[in-house]
Amino acid sequence: MMNQVVIAIVTYAEFLVPIKAIRTTVFQKEQGIAAELEFDGLDSIAIHLLAYIDANPVGTARMRDIGKQTLKLERLAVLPEARRKGIGKQLTQKALDFAQENNYQAVSLNSQLYVKNLYEKLGFQSVGDIFDEAGIPHIKMIKQLP
Predict the structure, then answer these.
(1) Coil, strand, or helix at residue 29?
(2) How far are the Cα atoms of 57, 83, 91 from residue 51, in angstroms, in the given order?
(3) Which residue intervals of 39-122 are DSSP H helices?
(4) Which residues pair with 56 in a beta bridge?
């Protein structure tokens, strides 16, 4: 049986401990990304999402206004034990809902290639060529909002 999943919009200052723990586990320990690339100094100006299962933080993402009425979704990470439960999809959907409610015209992201299908199912389209980010193949994706 699936446990209760809650996605909350949080501030980095207040929730930096669980946000850092999730991102450190996924990006640094699992994927070998350097801390200075992962923690790029932009967290304090971003809006953060935190996913909980039964009140335990298991996933996170951040959103930044990058101008031209576009919101950029970044740093989406779900702990290994919480994967395959739709949490990445729910985090992305929450970001899309937030963007629409705040009159953004598009949401963009740089997807790791292996999770590109997740975003395609939510209406994102690939833009341009595959590129390397922190040693991992990525593709830029964008979704225009109604």
Answers:
(1) helix
(2) 6, 12, 7
(3) 87-101, 116-121
(4) 53
Number of domains in the chain: 1
CATH number at residue 66: 3.40.630.30
pTM comes to 0.94
Tokens of 50: 């935190």
List, run by run, the mean pLDDT of 10-residue segments along the chain (146 residues). Answer: 85 96 96 90 96 96 97 97 95 98 98 95 97 95 96
Predicted local distance difference test score (pLDDT) of residue 1: 53
Question: What domain range is 62 assigned to?
Answer: 5-144
CA distance 50 to 65: 18
Q: Name the residue among 79, 49, 44 with its Cα closest to residue 62.
A: 49
On the CB side of 6, how many CA atoms lie within 13 Å of its CA? 10
- Give the integer Cα–Cα distance in Å for 10 and 19: 10
